[in-house]
Amino acid sequence: MSKQQAISPGKNFFAGGFGGVCLVFAGHPLDTIKVRIQTMPVPGPGESPLYRGTFDCFKQTLAKEGFKGLYKGMAAPIIGVTPMFAVCFFGFGLGKKLQQKTPDDVLTYPQLFAAGMLSGVFTTAIMAPGERIKCLLQAAKGEVKYAGPMDCVKQLYKESGIRGIYRGTALTLMRDVPASGMYFMTYEWLKRLLTPEGKSPNELSVPSVLFAGGMAGIFNWAVAIPPDVLKSRFQTAPEGKYPNGFRDVLRELLREEGVASLYKGFTAVMLRAFPANAACFLGFEMAMKFLNWAAPGL
């Protein structure tokens, strides 16, 4: 195998930010569907559910709100996603670098998983408020409580201070730390698997990068869905509804809807995971190639 490139936190930061923007544009419509399915009210006796599934939610959203409805709340993740993915890829790069004795060391899969978990810790500070705002805007069906992301932040701060904006941070950590470990480990594993003998993983073809990135997204969400359902419920619930935090949400969901409720929005998540994360890693790899060409010494 050819000599691997030394990890550059600076390049990881900028390339990760570009990858994150690609992810949001590719995946936001299905993210909106996911949040709406996860937060829809439980139907009463004899009532039909608000949405019969992913495609019904998609059709209803398009019919009532048009194409724009699918991109509701996108400003918050776009504003947050560039620094968030920049920090995410920086954290992964740092996690790898901390475990290397020399720049040529090839890390084991448990080491890559640990580096990925570190990236999940890094991103939570940015992710938690962005997720809270995004979920509130996405869950709004028709009624306009918030004029936009900044108005949402102002109202939340007025109602309950900084704690209101950061509500759901523990659940964001519970989702992102193990899921990020799985995300990056799977991507690196598939890159190695798809790399022809004697070549470097940095020379992978576009279809191979898209496949590895897309599958990394699938594995990431397979781990992340249950805590994500709890997080969406908790972050969109009225103040004081769950005094004991996620334990109350978990108890209510299991009591009223059973274990299957922890996988609400599964179809929307998985339909989104492949193209969104394929776009993210392709954006990251393209940006890295550009940065390596434009600033080889950085």
UniProtKB/TrEMBL annotation:
GO terms for molecular function: O-acyl-L-carnitine transmembrane transporter activity. It is found in: Mitochondrion membrane. Solcar repeats lie at residues 7-98, 107-193, 204-290. The keyword Membrane applies. GO terms for biological process: carnitine transmembrane transport; mitochondrial transport. It catalyses: (R)-carnitine(in) = (R)-carnitine(out); O-acetyl-(R)-carnitine(in) + (R)-carnitine(out) = O-acetyl-(R)-carnitine(out) + (R)-carnitine(in); an O-acyl-(R)-carnitine(in) + (R)-carnitine(out) = an O-acyl-(R)-carnitine(out) + (R)-carnitine(in); O-hexadecanoyl-(R)-carnitine(in) + (R)-carnitine(out) = O-hexadecanoyl-(R)-carnitine(out) + (R)-carnitine(in). GO terms for cellular component: mitochondrial membrane. Pfam families: Mito_carr. It is a multi-pass membrane protein. SUPFAM superfamilies: Mitochondrial carrier. InterPro entries: MCP_dom_sf, MCP_transmembrane, Mitochondrial_Carrier. Keywords: Membrane, Mitochondrion, Repeat, Transmembrane, Transmembrane helix, Transport. The chain crosses the membrane at residues 12-30, 74-94, 106-128. Its main location: mitochondrion. The keyword Transmembrane applies. Mediates the electroneutral exchange of acylcarnitines (O-acyl-(R)-carnitine or L-acylcarnitine) of different acyl chain lengths (ranging from O-acetyl-(R)-carnitine to long-chain O-acyl-(R)-carnitines) with free carnitine ((R)-carnitine or L-carnitine) across the mitochondrial inner membrane, via a ping-pong mechanism. Key player in the mitochondrial oxidation pathway, it translocates the fatty acids in the form of acylcarnitines into the mitochondrial matrix, where the carnitine palmitoyltransferase 2 (CPT-2) activates them to undergo fatty acid beta-oxidation. Belongs to the mitochondrial carrier (TC 2.A.29) family. This is Mitochondrial carnitine/acylcarnitine carrier protein. It comes from Oncorhynchus tshawytscha (Chinook salmon).
